[in-house]
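Entry
Fold in token form

___
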Amino acid sequence: MRRNLEDTIKFLDEVWHLNTTAIAYHLDGWDAREGEEATKRTRKSVFLNPEIMLDEQLSLMKIRSAYPDDRVPFFHPYLGVGVYASAFGCEIIFPENEQPWTKPLLYLENITEVYSLKTPQPQNGLLGKVLEYVNYFQKEKQEYPIRLTDTQSPIDSASLIMKYEELLIAMYTNPKEVHHLLKMVTELIIKFAKLEKSVVKDFSPNHSPQIYQPSDWGICLSDDLIAILSPELYREFALPYVNILSEEFNGVFIHSCGDFSHNLGNMLKMKNLRGIDFGVTEMPIENIVEKLDGKTLFVCHLGLNTKLRFNDTFEYLDYVFQRRKSNTHLFVLVPIFSTKGEKIPLDRVSKILEGK
């Protein structure tokens, strides 16, 4: 780490508040041998046992503490993307070595049943488990801050509660029912996020990617449907609810996979947009710079390599730096392995980033 923890947090506060154009960065990945030792349990065992989850996260913190970057260690009470959907009654399936799957409750044929759904409470479903994990983490290691659990945007969570493609159709055939569901999801997010924050001594509203975010500087939302919906549909069914959350939490930090260039105009209408996390191999960084440069923090990472492929970390960094401007605010996630699996020289990466 370039600084001690206190100075790192001060620096990152300046980055988030756009008071500096110095680049913040994480070195992502870990030594293969140590990583295997730290994560050799099944995914299911990690999800379903807070003791195992705590031990795994502590192991990874120890490995990553050696990296000379701007990482702030946090615990993350993560039980998958469907925790809010589970509070509505959706069944969550935990495969042995995959992410949890969410089974939808609603379909086009029964969409009017949305009016019969009970108002979910922030202790319902897996959200109650999240709170149990939070309490366990604090009891065992109270010196570490804790993140907000994975929080999908209202439209993303709605696509888990209702069958994905049928939700998209319902935007045309049953817009009132879709809005009713979105209002319920939004209210649940507000209740739960405030509840988790109230019981956590040192809280971060961030969940993806796992970087430091000031506790009073917005809420992090995974909003992947922004890459799927047309500007018109996003403006009607997503933007209003994002802005409700922004008003409640003093801003929003948006993560999305894919290319959401067509919805950058809608992002300009988000109230207090604190940052955007995107994969530069999926989302052209020049499009974001053109529309939002100087207005918010850009968090860059390697995505799914759907449009671009880089030979190594340094080619990736060159690509990003060549497209930034004098007022571009960057937080860069840097892979520590080449495409061939070779570990890159971390000191060289640090010198490059700190010299920019």
